[in-house]
Amino acid sequence: MKKILSIFVLLFALNASAQVQKKTIQKELSIEEKAKINFTDLTSVINLEDPTLDYALTQLFTTKHKMLSREGLTETDKKEVSNLIDAKLRATLNYESIQKLESKGIYKKLLN
After folding, report:
1. Where is the signal peptide (predicted)?
2. Total of domains in the chain
3. Burial of residue 38 (number of CB atoms within 10 Å: 0-12, 13-18, 19+)
4. pLDDT tens-digit readout, 98-108
5. Sign (positive/negative) of CA torsion 48, 51, 53, 59?
6. What is the dihedral of CA 29, 97, 91, 50, to 10 degrees?
C-alpha cells in the first residue's frame, strides 16, 4: 500500500512540475507588449519629438499585432497587413527616417 501511495505521489509531483515548465515555455507576449517592442525598436534608431506621433505609432503597432493574431490568417493576409503597415509608416515618417530604419535592418522587423 505504501508503494502504491509513493508511486501516486511521485507521478503527481512529476505531472505538476511538467505543467509549470509548460506554462513557462508557452508564455507569449501580449499584443501590447509586442507593440511596445516595435515602438522601442523604432525609437532606438530615430528620435520622435511629437507625442501625437508616439501615440499614433503605438496604436499602429497594436493594430498590426491584433490583425496578425487572428486565427486562420493566410500568407496573403499577412502580406496585406505588412503592405498596410509599410504604407502607413512611409506616410508618417520622412524619407531619411525610413532609410535609417532600413540600414539598421529594423524596418523589415517592424513590417512583420
Report:
1. 1-18
2. 1
3. buried
4. 999 999 999 99
5. positive
6. 80
pLDDT computed for residue 29 by the predictor: 86
pLDDT for 28 equals 82
DSSP-derived secondary structure letter, 50: -
Q: How far is CA 104 from CA 42, 78, 96, in A?
A: 10, 23, 12
What is the distance, to the nearest Å, from the Cα of residue 103 to the centroid of all Cα atoms in its chain? 21
Summarised one tens digit per residue, pLDDT across range 40-77 is 999 999 988 888 999 999 999 999 999 999 888 899 99
In a domain, 5, yes or no: no
Q: What is the domain extent for residue 69? A: 31-111
**What amino acid occupies position 25?**
I
What nine digits make up the cell of 22?
Answer: 509548460
Q: CA 70 to CA 54: how far, in whole Å? A: 25
Is residue 38 situated within a structural domain? yes
